[in-house]
Amino acid sequence: MQSVIVTGGTGGIGSSIVQELCAKGFLVYVIGHSHEPKEMHNMVRFHRCDVGKLKDVEQFFKNIGHEAAEEIIALVNNAGIYGDDRGEELLRTNILGPYYMTNSFAAYRRAHSFSGRGAVINMGSAAALHGVTRSPLYAASKSALHRLGTAQALVYAQEGLLSINTLVPGPVATNMLLERKDSLEAAIQHTPSHTLTTPREIAEMISVLIEKRNHNIVGSIITIDGGRSIS
């Protein structure tokens, strides 16, 4: 059995990603900072970890090094924080988290001498590309993540170790947005397709990128935003 690591997999978009991967037959290591998933699928293994702290990340990989009997083929860097009032925590989680997790995942695969490439999918944001945002620091952190992804993709592709890509959704139809009528209407109005991105769309694309990890999809920034980034 093959497995996948998903950070921030305890709610929202993360829950949909985990459900899709479990349905595909993967064992999923879910990382959460504050709480466990409300419902634990029998294909899920939960680990508490603050991805913005290197010691936590190193301990997580040490733990699964003893626990995992199967090959871990992919990492989904989904954990993220929104809101400038959370300042340093936001930057640690949104930038240092993917940096630490990706480097540690590369070290894990290198140490086990797995054949083929592993996959890393970073969760970007359309806020990094254009338009007004209520959280400039969030937008800046996601812009940095996009560049981090391409820079790390180059390094690890040359080694033949990882295929790293970044997924960039527009406004996503999660409860947080659906419950705010004014924000919901504005999001639809400013999306050329007039259709919000769904968590399921994101999860399905992540599944494709994992399945195609040994193909030449490397260092790409893939938008699922209904045309917002080109409008």
Short description:
This protein has 7 helices and 7 strands, in the order βαββαβαβαβαααβ.
CATH topology: Rossmann fold
Count of discrete structural domains:
1
CATH homologous superfamily assignment: NAD(P)-binding Rossmann-like Domain
Q: Enumerate how many helices there are, as a single number.
A: 7
- Beta percentage is 15-25%
Mean pLDDT across the residues is 89
Largest sheet: 7 strands, parallel
CATH class: Alpha Beta
Assigned CATH architecture: 3-Layer(aba) Sandwich
Alpha-carbon Rg, integer: 17 Å
Shape: globular
Record the strand order, biggest sheet: 3-2-1-4-5-6-7
| Uncertain stretches of 5 or more adjacent residues | none
Helix/strand-derived class? alpha/beta
> How many beta strands in the DSSP annotation?
7
Order of helices and strands: EHEEHEHEHEHHHE
Helix-strand layout with pairing:
Layout (H helix, E strand, L loop, with lengths): L2 E5 L4 H12 L3 E6 L11 E5 L5 H14 L4 E6 L9 H26 L5 E6 L12 H24 L2 E8 L5 H4 L2 H9 L9 H13 L9 E4 L7
Parallel strand pairs: 1-2, 1-4, 2-3, 4-5, 5-6, 6-7
Helix pairs in contact: 1-7, 2-3, 3-4
Give an overview in words.
There is one protein chain. A 7-stranded parallel sheet has the order 3-2-1-4-5-6-7, sandwiched between helices. The longest helix is centred in the middle third of the chain and has 26 residues, at 87-112. It has helices at 12-23, 54-67, 87-112, 136-159, 175-178, 181-189, 199-211; strands spanning 3-7, 27-32, 44-48, 72-77, 118-123, 162-169, 221-224. With 231 residues, it is of the alpha/beta class. Strand 5, helix 4 and strand 6 (162-169) form a beta-alpha-beta unit. It has a single domain, classed as NAD(P)-binding Rossmann-like Domain (Rossmann fold, 3-Layer(aba) Sandwich). The model has no long low-confidence stretch (mean pLDDT 89).
